[in-house]
Design brief:
single chain, 122 residues, mainly alpha, 5 helices, 77% helix
Length: 122
């Protein structure tokens, strides 16, 4: 664990905080999620995000590109969704977007000398 750059730990914590925010959003919108398929999709998404946070914490360098791709793909629809939701849910969605972008920026600020010390086989 000592070989992992502190930005990986910070980024992992930020990604985990977005899971907490997502759970709060789920509680606030619980009345609109009655279909089992919708709940299953949300739980699956939270598991994927949690797995990404774990891999980031372990220092896998390729995860930053995956997180960047997910952030790019998910930011625009999430922003439109945030603007169409209630005020509290919208603010929480925008907070999630900002935190995810911050997590990606932290990962890309890791120096290359540290970045190559943990490769895909670590």
């Amino acid at each position: 664990m000592s070989n992992v750059h502190p930005n990986y730990i910070k980024s992992s914590n930020i990604v985990l905080s977005t899971i907490v925010i997502a759970c709060i959003i789920l509680l606030l919108k619980s009345t609109s999620f009655t279909i089992a398929r919708t709940i299953g999709a949300m739980v699956s998404t939270l598991i994927i995000i949690g797995t990404l946070a774990y891999l980031v914490r372990k220092g896998y360098t390729w995860v930053k590109y995956l997180l960047l791709a997910f952030s790019i793909i998910g930011t625009l629809p999430a922003l439109f969704l945030a603007l169409s939701e209630s005020t509290i849910v919208g603010i929480l969605n925008i907070t999630q977007i900002i935190l995810q972008i911050w997590a990606v920026v932290l990962l890309f600020k890791v120096p290359k000398s540290v970045d190559t010390s943990t490769d895909i086989t670590a």
